[in-house]
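Protocol check, entry for the methods section draft. Step 1: assemble the input record (protein sequence plus ligand SMILES). Step 2: submit for complex structure prediction. Step 3: store the structure tokens unaltered in the notebook. Ligand used here: magnesium ion. Step 1 record:
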Amino acid sequence: MAGSNFVDYVKIFCRSGKGGAGSKHLYRDKLTQKGGPDGGDGGRGGHVILRGSKDYWTLIHLKYARHIHAGDGEGGSQSRSFGKEGEDKIIDVPCGTVVYDAETGEFICDITNDGEEFILVKGGRGGQGNWHFRTATNQTPRFAQPGEPAVERTVILQLKVLADVGLVGFPNAGKSTLLSVVSAAKPEIADYPFTTLVPNLGIVQYRDNKSFVMADIPGIIEGAAEGKGLGLRFLRHIERNSILLFMIPADSNDIAHEFDVLLNELKQYNPELVDKQRILAITKCDMLDDQMIEEMKNLLPENVQTVFISSVTGMGVSDLKDLIWKEINKESNKIVEINHRPMYIAPIDELDEEEFDFEEEDEEDEDLSKYKGIGWDEL
Ligand SMILES: Nc1nc2c(ncn2[C@@H]2O[C@H](COP(=O)(O)OP(=O)(O)OP(=O)(O)O)[C@@H](O)[C@H]2O)c(=O)[nH]1
Ligand SMILES: [Mg+2]
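Step 3, stored output:
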């Protein structure tokens, strides 16, 4: 995205190295006329490996490096010497990167831990030298195995951030304001809808040097599932949050209805999101007096823990932090495993020409560039 450092989708082409050929060498020296086969094996081609790294927050470093080639293995040589292995190419990705095959949409892997490695494309095996093929009846094999060819694969890397709590609400609900108050993040805040165009992450300091990660995502509106507003594109960033914090402003007309609308949009995106533990925060409560708060308590949705907060006065914010901490540490709210459904890849004839290349996401990004988004470097 021009003007922003937030890149959560890239398509890359990977090619492993081909295996080195086995050698057909026959041994000779000044005292030995026919020393027999001594050709060594070729080296393995380099793998393309994905590695999780906590030093990365986005996929921006891959945006302009979309062709990744590992080194070829070298051929074997005389005296049964092995060829050198091809250089492996390691791609560092942020924890929370999910990988799909770009042709079939099939889920390939999910990198969640720092240092976790996954071989995306295997290097070709090196061929065996002629030494392996000597037999009683063929003592001078003049042939050796060629190395295995390189493997090519185009993959889509998608980032689904690993935050503990995700903020869900309509535009202007005060999500970014809360993040700015409880963490060092400095998201843009303004009284018009869709101020936030890309997710923001913040680390919330809790008591005794404990901390948790909060993700502020762009506002959702009714009909987001059909693409209204910014659509549901950013909802994948709350897919693996332990809990969801719904935020509805105190001046809204019907809190219970707004809550249902939000819930319904999440459900349309991924029904599993509805199984997550939820907390409701009624924001901007500095606009209410105690009596109004009491009256409002009867209008709240049922079966959800609710906190009244104001990011401006600080009212209820520490209670909210306590509640979040309690919930994210509950064993039942820990995410054990999530199901990554295959990705939908449009058949070529459904794509218009512009989409059918590596710039696909850029087209979309371009449109948003006129807005000022906050990158994750603001953390
Ligand atoms: N009075 C009052 N105003 C608030 C409070 N929190 C946020 N606001 C105001 O509400 C407006 C919207 O706040 P944001 O934090 O940008 O809202 P948001 O939910 O991030 O909105 P989008 O990014 O557009 O989805 C701003 O003008 C804030 O100053 C609060 O606790 N009290
Ligand atoms: Mg915002």
